[in-house]
Inverse folding.
């Protein structure tokens, strides 16, 4: 028996569980949000994550000194710089501390639904994705970086510095100045995030992930067309949507070449599924436009020896039978709302399961309710292999006694 509480032991515990081998105990790797701040003693809030990262990092270090999961997604916090976003004029979300906005200090950023690509621009997107993102999407997403719109290289000019003329024009010079300012703020954020990462390694907690992914349809719906626009496109221009999803998948796979040579402690990519839930598209649309391009990514990662950790957000009860074409022993499926018994039967011998435990009672319920919620799920899925403990969503707020009771229940399961 190996030490399941050491850094390497925790890595082995997670890897063997994902590979569907019997585990000596249930691995614990919950999705964490503001709870690291909420349960710490220094009063840090998400505003500090954006504007006072040292205070937020201190809170995270205190939290992990007390609560030690078997893996964690970075710090549990996303260290975005409020100042850098102010300089850029970011318009896709509002955040705590943003001048002129009223987002509460204790919440995360609040996203907007904005169409950054018009419905007649698919041909331009398909012809040159990088150019389209630079000249259209970036200046539409960042109010203070309009200079990117002028970034058009003339292929007929290649004598001396002539080909660089668009890069040297005044609009781009203004962009460089702002990017340099932003880089300084982002470096300060990264320094604090790295401090937390170093502490986690020191106390034996490995990373849960070393990469991020997105379902190609979500890339279109979340980042380009907005939810309503993407839904209209499914009806009015499905061939263009399908072609765009396929192209995004190919370019994403090309961007993951680092997995072939980077010395990473683990190789896992996280996919939050935003728009594949029950009822948002027909079964055929789900299979062909949502799931098929996603599986192209997942199977490409599996060939590189990389595990895909897929978070099925929303209700997935009608999708289960269309989701079993996964690389065996190289996938984790975390569910927010799905029947654990159905999932256990459908994915037995195929994929490791996670999630199912509701978070509502952590903040609003009693200790006894939390224990009951946890046991109800463990009774179904914790049969000695293929399950990583997690909740239905990232934990933002929780009573300390309820938080402790949930994890004590998992740690004592079977003893």
């Amino acid at each position: 028996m190996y030490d399941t509480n050491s850094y390497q032991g925790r890595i082995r515990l997670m890897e063997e569980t994902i590979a569907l081998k019997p585990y000596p105990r249930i691995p614990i790797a919950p999705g964490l949000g503001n709870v690291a701040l909420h349960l710490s003693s220094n009063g840090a809030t998400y505003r500090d994550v954006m504007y006072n990262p040292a205070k937020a990092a201190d809170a995270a270090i205190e939290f992990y000194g007390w609560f030690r999961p078997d893996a964690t997604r970075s710090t549990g916090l996303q260290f975005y710089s409020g100042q850098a976003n102010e300089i850029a004029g970011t318009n896709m979300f509002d955040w705590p501390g943003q001048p002129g906005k009223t987002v509460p200090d204790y919440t995360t950023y609040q996203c907007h639904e904005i169409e950054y690509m018009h419905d007649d621009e698919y041909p331009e997107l398909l012809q040159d994705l990088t150019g389209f993102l630079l000249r259209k999407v970036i200046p539409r997403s960042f109010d203070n970086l309009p200079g990117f719109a002028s970034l058009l290289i003339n292929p007929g000019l290649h004598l001396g510095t002539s080909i660089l003329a668009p890069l040297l024009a005044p609009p781009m010079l203004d962009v460089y100045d702002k990017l340099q300012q932003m880089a300084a703020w982002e470096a300060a954020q990264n320094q604090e995030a790295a401090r937390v990462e170093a502490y986690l390694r020191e106390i034996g907690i490995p990373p849960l992930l070393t990469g991020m992914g997105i379902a190609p349809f979500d890339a279109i719906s979340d980042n380009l067309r907005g939810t309503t626009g993407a839904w209209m496109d499914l009806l009015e221009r499905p061939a263009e949507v399908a072609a765009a999803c396929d192209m995004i998948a190919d370019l994403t796979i090309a961007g993951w070449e680092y997995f072939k040579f980077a010395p990473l402690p683990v190789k896992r990519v996280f996919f939050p599924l935003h728009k594949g839930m029950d009822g948002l598209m027909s079964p055929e649309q789900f299979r062909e436009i949502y799931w098929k391009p996603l599986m192209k990514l997942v199977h490409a990662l599996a060939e590189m020896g990389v595990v895909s950790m897929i978070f099925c957000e929303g209700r997935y009860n009608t999708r289960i039978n269309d989701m079993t074409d996964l690389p065996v022993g190289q996938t984790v499926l975390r569910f927010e709302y799905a029947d654990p018994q159905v999932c256990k039967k459908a994915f037995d011998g195929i994929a490791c399961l996670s999630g199912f435990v509701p978070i509502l009672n952590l903040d609003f319920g009693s200790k006894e309710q939390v224990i009951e919620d946890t046991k109800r799920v463990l009774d179904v899925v914790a049969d000695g292999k293929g399950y990583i403990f997690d909740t239905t969503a990232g934990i933002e707020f929780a009573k300390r006694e309820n938080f402790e009771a949930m994890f004590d229940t998992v740690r004592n399961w079977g003893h």
In short: The chain is about 50% helix and 10% strand. Residues 153 and 164 are 8 Å apart (CA to CA).
